[in-house]
């Protein structure tokens, strides 16, 4: 499968500083047909596919053939002392990302 030429970033929460796009892309596009989902670990446990799945768009809301990628690291908003505790971008296991995609169709 060929890598997409452009990706649109989708996140359930506002992103202060978006991550670098995958596939060596130069930046994010607001017009791209393919989506990259940045999971929010502030509101969901990234070790549970059932908690991550609602952050992935439902297949019925997308155009047919739309590619959806779930990024390998989630975002976590940290305030106060939380800035020094735990990673800001916790990793998300591939199996859990796949399960979240399958759960959303």
Average pLDDT metric? 86
Helix content: 10-25%
Total of DSSP H or I helical runs spanning 4+ residues: 2
Q: How much strand?
A: 5-15%
**Total domain units:** 1
Secondary-structure element sequence?
EEHEH
Query: Could you list the spans in which at least 5 consecutive residues all have pLDDT below 50?
Result: none
Q: Count the strands?
A: 3
Q: Strand order across the biggest sheet?
A: 1-2-3
Biggest β-sheet strands, sense, barrel: 3 strands, parallel
- Which overall shape is indicated by the principal axes computed on the Cα atoms? globular
The quaternary organization reads as: single chain
Can you put this structure into words, describing what you see?
This protein has 2 helices and 3 strands. β2 (about 35-40), α1 and β3 (about 70) form a beta-alpha-beta unit. It is globular. With about 100 residues, the protein is largely without helices or strands. It has a 3-stranded parallel beta sheet with strand order 1-2-3. The longest helix has 10 residues, at about 95-105. The protein has one domain (about 10-15, about 30-105).
Quick structural overview:
This protein has 105 residues and is mostly loops.
Secondary structure layout plus pairing:
Layout: E1 8-11, E2 35-38, H1 49-52, E3 68-70, H2 94-103
Parallel strand pairs: 1-2, 2-3
């Amino acid at each position: 499968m060929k890598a997409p030429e452009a990706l649109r970033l989708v996140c359930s929460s506002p992103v202060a500083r978006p991550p670098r796009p995958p596939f060596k892309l130069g930046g994010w596009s607001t017009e791209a047909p393919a989506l990259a989902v940045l999971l929010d670990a502030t509101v969901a446990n990234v070790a549970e596919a059932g908690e991550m799945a609602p952050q992935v768009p439902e297949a019925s809301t997308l155009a047919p053939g739309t590619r959806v990628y779930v990024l390998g690291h989630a975002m976590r908003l940290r305030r106060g002392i939380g800035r020094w505790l735990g990673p800001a971008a916790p990793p998300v296991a591939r199996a859990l990302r796949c399960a979240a995609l399958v759960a959303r169709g």
